Task: structure prediction
Amino acid sequence: MRRTIIIADKEGLARELLEQIFANDYDIVLADDGKQALAEINAHIRELAAVFIDWDIPGFNGYQILQVLKLKSVCSRVPVILTTDKTETQIEVTGYAMNAAAVIHKPYTAITLRRQVIRLMELFDKVTALEAAAEEKEKKVRQQQEKLDDFYEKLLDSISTIVEYRSPEFERHILRIKNFTRIMAASYKNLYPKANLTDEQINRMVRASAIHDIGKIAVPDSILLKPARLTDDERQVMMSHTTKGAEVLELLRDVQDEEQFKTSYEVCRWHHERHDGKGYPDGLKEDEIPLSAKIVSLVDVYDALVSERIYKKAYDADTAFHMIMKGECGVFAPDILKCFEASRKLIELYAENN
Result:
C-alpha cells in the first residue's frame, strides 16, 4: 500500500509543484485551508509519510496546525515540513520549536527539495522502526518479568505451605496474611503519597508475606504444636524462627531478583520487631524497621488474635482491633496504626469470609 503525503498550501501553483515532485511514489492529498488540512491528516493518519504546511494557510494557520500536531504527537512520527514565502528568521525559530522537521522557503528547487524530504522520511521511518523494536523488546522483558514474578510467588507459596501442613489450625492463614498485607499496603499508599510506594513494591510485600514464618520449619513439633504456655527455653527456640527464616531465604537468593529477596528477607527476619524496640530478634525500633516488616507484623498479630489456636480461643474482631490499637500486643508505628484503622472494615470483611 502506497503511503500518503498531505500538501496544505494557500497557493495552487505551490500545491501542484509539490504534487509533481512526489506523485510517482506517494498518494497525494491536497488542502487549501487549515481546517481541511487537519481533517485530511486525521483521515490518513495511519499511512502518512509526510505533511507540508504553509505558514500562511487560511483557516488554521501553520502555527496553529503545528500546535495541534504536536499535541497529537504527529510531529514525532512523521516529518511535518513548514513552508513559507517569508524571510523572517522568527518563522524558522517558531517552526522548529513546534517540532517541525524542516522549514523550507519558497520558491523550491525540485531536486533539492525531493532529496531533503526523502531523507527526512527515511530518517523518521528508521526511528519509528527502532522505537517499535525497542517497544517489542520491552514488552518481552515485561512478559518475562511477569513470568518470573509468578514463579517467585508460586515458589514462596509452596514453601510456606510446608509450615501450614505441620499445623492444621493454620489453614488459610497464608492466604489471609497476603490479602491483609495488600489491603494495608494500599491504604499506606493512599494515606502517605509522599512515600512513593509503587504497585510493584506492594506486590513484593504481598509475595514476601507468604513466607514470613518459613523459619518455623526449624521449630520442633513439640514446641510449635504445644497446647500450653512455652517455657523460656522453648520461647527462645520459637523466636529463632525469624533468623532461621532469613537463613532459608539466603539459600533461595539466586532464584529471586534482588528487590524481591530484600523484601522477603526484611519480612522474615523483622516481622516481630516493635516500634519501641522491644521486639526481636534485633531490637530494631521506629524507622529502623522496614515498612514491609511493619505491615506484615501487624496483620500477623491481627490474624493470630481473630483465629483459634491450640492454646487459645479466637477473639472477636472488635476486641482484636482495640487490643492492637492500645498496644496490648506490642507497640506498632503510628502510621501503621492509622492505616489499620482506615482499613479496619475491609480487613474485617475479608476475615469474616475467609
In short: The chain has 14 helices and five strands. The two ends are 59 Å apart (CA to CA). Residues 110-166 form the longest helix (57 residues).
